[in-house]
Design goal:
Histone, subunit A; CENP-S/Mhf1; DNA repair; mainly alpha; Kinetochore component CENP-S-domain-containing protein; about 110 residues
């Protein structure tokens, strides 16, 4: 069996996150003519991973509290409630998607 098949999915996700963060840091470092060490990228990845885990637990708790087994946009909006700018951006996106869905549904009739 190959190593990738045996690998824990969480470890594969974390490796993909490390790669994505590394790319973003490299691009920004080049743009700003700065350097970032692999240790910095590793620490940033760990911090983002911990935040993702916290967000996942909160979203799961919100949906369970509402008696649902699926996380919805309402849960995401509740999570973002303390960051007014983020909440407004997410709400705007959700509203535009709902409006587009309604418009698409009406055009099919």
């Amino acid at each position: 069996m190959s190593e990738a098949v045996d690998e824990d999915p969480r470890e594969r996700l974390k490796a993909a996150l490390w790669f994505a963060i590394g790319k973003m840091v490299d691009e920004e470092s080049l743009r700003k003519n700065r350097n970032a060490t692999p240790q910095f990228i590793g620490a940033l990845t760990e911090m983002v991973w911990a935040q993702i885990e916290n967000v996942a637990v909160d979203l799961e708790s919100f949906s369970q509290h509402a008696g649902r087994t699926t996380v919805t946009t309402d849960d995401v909006l509740l999570l973002a409630r303390r960051n007014q700018d983020l909440h407004a951006m997410i709400k705007d996106l959700v509203d535009r998607q709902k409006a587009a869905k309604v418009k698409k549904g009406k055009s099919k009739r």
